[in-house]
Amino acid sequence: MANWETVEVTTDVLICGGGMAACGAAVEAAYWAKKNGLKVALADKAVPTRSGAVAMGLSAINEYIGYGKGDNTLEDYVRYVRQDLMGVCREDLVFNIARHVDSSVHLFEKWGLPIWKDADGNYVHEGRWQVMINGESYKVVISEAAINAMQDAGGEIYERVFIVAPLMSGGRCVGAIGFSTREPKIYVFKAKAVVATMGGAVHVFRPRSTGEGLGRSWYPPFNSGSSAFFTMRAGAEMTCQEVRFIPVRFKDAYGPVGAWFLLFKSRAVSAEGGDYMVEHKAELQNWAPYGLAKPIPANLRNYLGMLDTDAGLGPLYMETDEAIQKLADQYKDDPKAFKKKMKELESEAWEDFLDMTISQAILWAAQNIAPEEKHSEIAACEPYFIGSHSGASGAWVCTPPDMADKVPAHYKWEYNGKVYGNMTTVPGLFAAGDASGASSHKFSSGSNAEGRWAGKQAVRFAVNNPDIPAPEGVDELKARLMRPLELFEQFSGYSYDSNINPNYIKPFQFMFRLQKIMDEYAGGVSSAFKTSKALLERGLELLAFLKEDSEKLAAEDAYELERCWENIHRMWQAEAHVRTILFREETRWPGYYFRSDTPKMDDANWLTFANIKWDPKTGEWATFKREIVKLVN
Ligand SMILES: Cc1cc2nc3c(=O)[nH]c(=O)nc-3n(C[C@H](O)[C@H](O)[C@H](O)COP(=O)(O)OP(=O)(O)OC[C@H]3O[C@@H](n4cnc5c(N)ncnc54)[C@H](O)[C@@H]3O)c2cc1C
Q: What one-character DSSP code corresponds to residue 245?
């Protein structure tokens, strides 16, 4: 630690992360901070122009209401999200995001994002809520606006600074501690309000791609559970930690299937050619009312495919050739129109991959697959934590102040007599995007809108609470942060191979151990997404040993120090997940996980939020129910 400089930054609002939600928070916080003579700082472990899930490029904006034109109502969106989450959602939060999301999309367009338009100038829709974009520069466009807003307001952006943990004072969050991933510097940020927007988590479970394919996953590998760790360690109440997301994607390259299902109307079938959505339709009765309403929830669609896989009818295929042929058939009597249509379809299909998953195109080329001629394998991916997409894990946050009189008491709380929207149960700590829970299907646009909202609320908090109490235990945290480097320095001479040493564990080995536990005990790929009370309890025992050994993580350099902390963050996400699945004694999202010992949905006892809280004073976990209140008919 002797060689590492400590940089102290005092600001009014600190935004942790640089993704879609953080960029929204930066735009709005900078605006309101400037008006109030306050300062905003943002710290991203990467660089905002290319960081977070959207950095890989997307081909559609998945939440657009079309409210202004009367295409849909805000209530329609709430109903859609509630249905997809099998009834478990905070309707106030979804409503709040929906009422702001269209303005985020309009801003994106104003900032230069190309959104597809039809001949009448209307957005081209992929589905009811999705609008098509040329998305290869999506993140660059959105982050540029955030950077400009920050510069205009005299804000500061810290790139390549990995946030490790919150700074606390008397139960209030007053900043964060982190380190540079490029220089020997520890960062101590002191702030009146902190916004956690560090995305979700991947590589908590063993991925399908291991060995030579390691690093490939649907969810980009940049996010490692930092939002969950940060909010949990601050003592925030968490929600929906059991609601992980498993997408079904083209196998191994994880190429997107949305355009194939929605735009090209493609079918997914078993190896025997049966359409599992048709053949297992009766199964949906068992998951009523959600199984019988439209759209069928994503987890149930997964589940019907899994039934075929379990019955030995795999692999599953996307009938790309059939879909393209069907579309082209409409033009079969007009060769010129046929040629034009085929060209159009081909460019749409390729655009989709080149925007988002270039590796899918490479894999197809490697396997001699021309999608218009041959079908392609699809598979359920390993589980991810992404509360902004179709999972729902995140912090339990406060309702918007203007909705406070419409929601039950447990959806709102005050600090010094005021309600702050999107504040966690920890004063001064706000969460948005993947970091806030029970409000999924915000996707890129909704995460940005929610970030804008949280940024504005954080400035309000900073205006009303102008003090920054001294953070507790900073020196201890600094020592803890650096321990992996010191451990390596102390013991690396003990063995010839610095990766193998009885005195410490390297971050890669640690990650593999975590992934093995989660895969085998918490319903990962190799357990066919199934688990049980006994398995979860055994998993918790093994996680406890892992936690002990996390004290022995060693890092050779700053790069490995980052990997060490990423894995500690993942481990906490894992524990909260296992504890909450164990607590919820039913199966509600069978295509995401299946509790074989409680295989049915039990609305009478479990149509409720399962929340969890780690107590910073005692180090104890508590799991408890929170009532779901229906606000929209
Ligand atoms: C594969 C994939 C495809 C998707 N497709 C679509 C789509 O087609 N349309 C759509 O609208 N949405 C899509 N989404 C959803 C969308 O990407 C997310 O909803 C959105 O990015 C969430 O925003 P966020 O800010 O919470 O997280 P992110 O945008 O992922 O940002 C997280 C940020 O936190 C930073 N960070 C992480 N850890 C730390 C740390 N310890 N310290 C400092 N910084 C940290 C990261 O560098 C990053 O800047 C997709 C998501 C994925 C994963």
A: B
pLDDT value at residue 215? 86
Atom number of ligand 1 nearest to Cα 230: 41
- Which residue puts its alpha carbon closest to atom 16 of ligand 1? 444
Would strands 172-180 and 131-132 be described as parallel, antiparallel, or unpaired? unpaired
Taking CA atoms only, the protein residue closest to ligand 1 atom 20 is 444
Query: Do the beta carbons of residue 179 and residue 164 sit within 8 Å?
Result: yes
Provide the pLDDT for residue 350.
73
pTM, full prediction? 0.97
pLDDT value of position 2: 58
Distance from Cα 356 to the centre of ligand 1, integer Å: 13
Residue among 47, 58, 218 whose CB has most ligand 1 atoms within 8 A, to mutate = 58
E-strand stretches of 451-531: 530-531
Q: How far is residue 280's CA from residue 316's CA, in Å, rounded to a whole number?
A: 14
Tell me, using a 6 A CB cutoff, whether residue 434 lines ligand 1: yes
Q: Residues with catalytic annotation? A: 62, 126, 218, 249, 352, 389, 444
Distance 117 CA to ligand 1 centre (A): 26
Residue owning the nearest CA to atom 46 of ligand 1 = 52
C-alpha 40/C-alpha 194 separation (Å) is 10
Element (H, E) at 444: helix 443-464
Query: What class, spelled out in words, does domain 481-602 have in CATH?
Result: mainly alpha
Burial class (CB in 10 A: 0-12, 13-18, 19+), 331: middle
| Residue stretches of the chain with pLDDT short of 70 | 1-2
Residue 213: what pLDDT?
86
Look at residues 415, 1, 17 and name the one whose alpha carbon lies nearest to residue 230.
17
In which residue are the tokens 């060689």 written? 3
Instruction: List residues bridging with 117 in a β-sheet.
Output: 123
State the pLDDT at residue 1: 53
Helix 358-366 to helix 335-356 angle (10° resolution) is 110
User: Cα dihedral sign for 109, 114, 118, 121?
Assistant: positive
Instruction: Name the CATH superfamily for 5-243+385-464.
Output: FAD/NAD(P)-binding domain (3.50.50.60)
CB of 166 closer than 6 A to ligand 1?
Answer: no
The domain segmentation of the chain, as residue ranges, is 5-243+385-464, 248-380, 481-602
Cβ proximity of 201 and 224 under 8 Å: yes
List CB contacts of 216: < 8 A, sequence separation 6 or more: 207, 209, 252, 253, 254, 359
Cβ–ligand 1 contact at 54 (below 6 Å): yes
Candidates 14, 20, 157, 386: which one to mutate for ligand 1, based on the most atoms within 8 Å of Cβ? Answer: 20
Is it true that domain 248-380 has CATH number 3.90.700.10? yes
**So what's the pLDDT on residue 336?**
86
Is 481-602 the same fold as 248-380? no
What is the signed CA dihedral for 481, 484, 489, 494, rounded to 10 degrees? 160
pLDDT of residue 509: 96
- Are 542 and 25 in contact, with CB atoms under 8 Å apart? no
pLDDT of residue 135: 87
Query: For residue 27, what are the CA distances in angstroms to 22, 51, 154, 448, 479?
Result: 9, 17, 12, 10, 34
